[in-house]
Specification:
Two copies of one chain form a homodimer.
Chain A (H helix, E strand, L loop, with lengths): L1 H16 L1 E3 L3 E3 L7 E2 L1 H14 L7 E5 L2 H13 L3 E4 L11 E8 L4 E8 L8 E9 L3 H12 L3 E11 L4 H8 L3 E9 L6 E2 L1
Parallel strand pairs in A: 4-5, 4-8, 8-9, 9-10
Antiparallel strand pairs in A: 1-2, 6-7, 10-11
Helix pairs in contact in A: 1-2, 2-3
């Protein structure tokens, strides 16, 4: 029941502050990925903890930039470190990295993502956290990296899923456990319909 | 005294897990900007709250990517939203933006940073939070953006300051209040000396 309340909080926020552009773009930069409502993130983090209660999780993995805040707030309820995959090599990154390719629809570019080999190990049970699931490119890239490390994908926690795109199917095909808190069935005509 | 303990925690971590490259690069990707020790961030956030106790703060501003986690964790102690400046225009960003230029030493590039005009207003009192202060490029860019919005810079909170670089002087020249939790006087010969 607490979970239902939390999801309602997020869904209400999407309805009130989300802006639909075309039939597939949802702008939630008011509270999720430009301005951040940290108290809402706390509720989302608690809900992820409920959904994955009893699952052995040793690390949370996300991807820069918009997943980082949610991953950090969520990690407080799991008492595990966060690792975020980087989109560019810098002198701050080690030379020994796991690497995958991710296509960004919102920026219309294909880019490499990197995780230092120091921070993912074979005995890690990794929870992937991200703000959005659409076509699943980011989730696939992170699962690829976890696979390269020989680690285990414990699950995937998503704040907002656009179910009418390909992400869910791709994740199901890989057999990973997916928990999305607000699942959007359709945005046709600018109207948000939850599943 | 709590503050002293917190700072010791961060300084010990820098000594134990930081890696000095050359005389000026400090890699702390083990706990700060690739893998993130969220419980350490909680202590840093509490310390920022102590340092800026009684200061009117309505918003925390940071810059993607490595400032986001620290800003979100810190925001829990101030009960204000976080806004993070973006480094690239995307379809998720509004067309009406404040914009500034920032040079990244670690990536050796000059890039634009953007904040939607929706999320910084004239009556905002803004606390800038970032993981590092070195040459002050990011802090200057964020102060520039706050100025464009007609908002007030309430202060700047930094986890690790490299005092032997130009950042502190630039911020002092602007008359802003700077609180750095671990101030490094020198890293010559690979040895970290705190101020």
């Amino acid at each position: 029941m607490g979970g239902m309340v939390n999801m309602k909080l997020l869904k209400d926020r999407i309805i009130n502050d989300g802006r639909v552009i075309g039939d597939s773009i949802l702008k939630v930069d008011n509270f999720l990925n430009h301005q951040i409502d940290v108290s809402l993130f706390n509720e989302i983090g608690k809900e992820f903890k409920k959904r994955f209660d009893g699952v052995n999780i040793t690390k949370i993995l996300t991807i820069e930039s918009s997943g980082i805040g949610l991953a950090c707030i969520t990690a407080q309820y799991f008492n595990v470190p966060v690792v975020f995959a980087k989109k560019a090599l810098s002198i701050n990154l080690d030379s020994e990295v796991y690497q995958s390719k991710v296509f960004s629809f919102t920026k219309n570019t294909l880019y490499n993502v990197f995780v230092s080999k120091r921070y993912l190990k074979q005995d890690d049970n990794v929870l992937i956290i991200d703000d959005f699931l659409a076509n699943g490119h980011a989730a696939m890239g992170l699962m690829d990296i976890i696979g390269q490390a020989g680690a285990n994908v414990a699950g995937i926690g998503i704040a907002i899923e656009k179910k009418f795109q390909e992400g869910r199917k791709k994740i199901m095909d890989r057999g990973a456990r997916l928990e999305s808190l607000a699942i959007i069935e359709s945005m046709a005509g600018g109207k948000i319909v939850f599943a």
